[in-house]
Structure formats: structure tokens, C-alpha cells
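Researcher: Excuse me, C-alpha cells okay?
***
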Amino acid sequence: MCGRYASSRDPADLVVEFEIEAGNVRESVQELPDNYNVAPTDPVIAVVERRNREHPDEVVRKLTTVKWGLVPSWAKDTSIGSRLINARMETVAEKPAFKKAFAVRRCLLPADGYYEWYETEQKLNGKPVKQPYFIRPADGGVLAMAGLYEIWRNKAVEDPEKDEAWLWTCTVLTTTATDDLGRIHDRMPLLVEPDRYDAWLDPLKSDPDELLELLVPAAPGRLEAYAVSKAVSSVKNNGPHLVDPLPPDGVDPVDKPQEPEETTLF
């Protein structure tokens, strides 16, 4: 599964990458800080296409923010979202929570890369020690994860014209990990290649078989993985140091004994 990722791309770069007109970038995108430890329920950047209200046969591509953890439109409350951070490719077209969104509300979730935890042979208190890895495009490009989004009506807000009346949420689609990454974890997020952005985002396309054909695991060598500090395991930690490879000696900075602070005697 995909449960953490990093997102620090400049919105201006995303506008170019996903061919979005400057006027179609929500203010919330500009206000969102870099996040090197994106966790479920966090606000994240998403690329979506919506029908043009004045011309229903036309679509408009937008850069917006959504909350990670999909809340179906029929949900009684938002608590279900924390359990729907991922959608399996194998069942996404049939599952009630995802079926409608898969048909008409697909999105791209830009990322620098994502984290997975590998169970080592080391034991701590009888449990395997898990080593986090950061997985990213080998060429340093943007990782466009396949996602779905939903819009949930907050009935506690009477005025439907207010932004608070609607909650936008998302989920990440996953598949069986490729051979070179399966050694770390058996699942991985599905990626959408640039030549398939248009077809994946198009809300006018809804044939499940055609949509599933757009989704293929990353090609061998497309991604690289390396061990990072266990500091990422705590959502309290954030910053670019989380995606730094472990030092050559392999010793995790969080495992190094802290040197005592020097005191000055007067």
C-alpha cells in the first residue's frame, strides 16, 4: 500500500508538467507548504479535469487541493476516509466506495516519491525492525500517481455556495509491485505516464476496461529505491532530510547516541 509520500514541487513546475493554465490554479495550492512526510488526512495537491459549466462537452484542467482519504458522496460522516487512502486496481471498478469515482472522477497526485517499509531480520521486543525506503523516479522527474477524488456535501453548512459546504477527498490506486520493488513491499502506487494524462483525467471517458488499460506498473528501472532514516516513521517529523539516503556507514542518524551539550562555567 502507499501510506506516506513526499510532495515539494513548485506549483509553477506542476503547471508546466500537467499543462494547466495559470488561471486554473486554486489559491489553496499556493498556500500549501512543502511536505516531505505526507500522511493520511493531510491536504495534498491534485490535478483534476472538470466539465465546463457553460459548455458541458468541454473540460477544464485544474490544480487544486484535496484531503487524502476518500469520503464517498453517500457516507454519513467523514470518518470513513481514514480507511480509504488506497484503492486496489484489481477491484476499483466494482467496489461501491470507488466505482462511481473511477468512472468520472479520476485525478493525478503529483509526488517526489513515496515511502515503503521493509521488514528486516533484526528484532526489537520480539518484532521485526522495519527499514523505511524512499522510492522515486530515477530521472528525478515528477511521480504522477493515479488517484480518484470525491466531493462530499457537508450538510452542517446550509449555504451550498460556501467552500466549507463541500469536502474534496482522494485515494491512491495501487497494484502488485514490480519485481525490482516487490522485495520491499508487495504493493505499490499506480503511475500514469505523461502520454496517458489526457485519457486518464478525461471525465467524458467512463468505460472501465479502457480505463484499466491505461494503468500499468512502472517499467523496470523507471524507479529507484534507497534506505532512509526511521525518522520518517513519525508524522511529527518533516523536512527535506527525510528523503536523504542513509550515510555510507549505514547508521541511521536517529540511532546515533546524542553527544552531551557543552556547559560553560563562569
Helices lie at 11-17, 27-31, 99-104, 179-182, 197-201, 208-213. The first helix runs from residue 11 to 17. The CA atoms of residues 16 and 179 lie 32 Å apart.
